Amino acid sequence: MNNELSAQQCEACQVDAPKVSDNELTQLLGQIPDWVPQVRDNVMMLEREYKFKNYKLAWAFANKVSELAEAEFHHPSILLEWGKVTVTWWTHAIGGLHKNDFICAAKTDQLM
Length: 112
What we know:
The chain is α+β, with helices and mostly antiparallel strands. The protein contains 4 helices and 4 strands; from the N terminus they run ααββαββα.
């Protein structure tokens, strides 16, 4: 099912775009099971931690995520550490989760 999301493109998102509903959240999370919903400052986000053998591999992955973000024109938070990259997707314009975040999360998984 992950392929279904990763085959889609992000759409331009405006301030009045709808956040995902609770039903959509459950359905979409089923397609990206390694991602965890997090709430920070009352904003729901998707987060996943990727582990690597060293800093250089983590750095290369963070660069791939950055290239994906530019291609989709949707930008996550990327925390690069020794042997670890934490990626957090949410839609800044709506202060929460949009389908774009799930599309990008699925595409991020494919970078591994």
